[in-house]
Amino acid sequence: MSFKIAVIGGTGVYDPNILDDVRVEKVDTPYGEVSVNLGRYKGKNVAFLARHGADHSVPPHRVNYRANIAALKKLGVCWVLATAAVGSLNPAMQPGHFVAVDQFIDLTKARPQTYFEGGDAGVVHTDMTEPYCPQMRELLRRAAGSLKLVVHAGGTYVCTEGPRFETPAEIRMIQHVGGDLVGMTGVPEVILARELEMCYVTVAMVTNFAAGISPTKLSHQEVLDVMGQNGENIQRLAMQVIDWLDVDRTCPCGGAGVPAGPALRP
């Protein structure tokens, strides 16, 4: 059975019971075993993966991103909707708002970022001009409008290593280079999905303003509180996108000319 759609749940989005007939499957990859929840929604097979584990036990810098994306590819996934809790550097992007991210800046330091390490895997320089699927971003915009949710049609996501929050000086630097949002999980997830020719989109939910912008000190509990208040909205948004998604249509993301084999070879 093929699962063409996947939801990657970030902070605050752990519950696979947004799907029907859920079962857990262990998927072996060359990068490790991954636990994935498999179910259905309105007649479509959907995979659900909790990025940080079901109990949020895995910090962002320890997530096995290569195994996660390889496992979804092995299940037959072509379309990935990833959620992310983010801090905002843009006054227009306020807590509770959603953003269909269209660009990223990578400030991580110690994460494996590719399936192409040379040798048998080869050397591949993947084009990242449009890292997030334009068709899925448009679906997000339309779905949010139908649900009367505030969504920004684009925004630049800056990924930091974590798990600490950023300093005010770092936030000023990020503002200077054009960042709108800051988070800890968007990279290398988006890169790996593109390497395997998957249509990938991030729906970011703003939980707070970043350090030095927020009038108070940041805390993980603040993030969880806002996600708790708005968690139902992000689930409604994700499920509306899945409902409207035509899994059989073609998209340029799936034709990047990048061989998809290395992530799946034993």
Keywords for this structure?
eleven-stranded mixed β-sheet, single chain, 5 helices, 25% helix, alpha/beta, Rossmann fold, 266 residues, 27% strand
SSE blueprint:
Layout: E1 5-9, E2 20-29, E3 32-41, E4 44-50, H1 65-74, E5 79-88, E6 98-100, E7 103-107, H2 134-146, E8 151-152, E9 156-160, H3 168-176, E10 181-183, H4 186-195, E11 199-209, H5 220-244
Parallel strand pairs: 1-4, 1-5, 5-11, 6-8, 7-9, 9-10
Antiparallel strand pairs: 2-3, 3-4, 5-10, 6-11
Structure report:
It is a single chain. This protein is α/β, with parallel strands linked by helices. It has a single domain, classed as Rossmann fold. Helix content is 25%, strand content 27%. It contains five helices and eleven strands. Strands 1, 2, 3, 4, 5, 6, 7, 8, 9, 10 and 11 form an eleven-stranded mixed beta sheet that branches. The protein starts with a strand and ends in a 22-residue tail after the last helix.
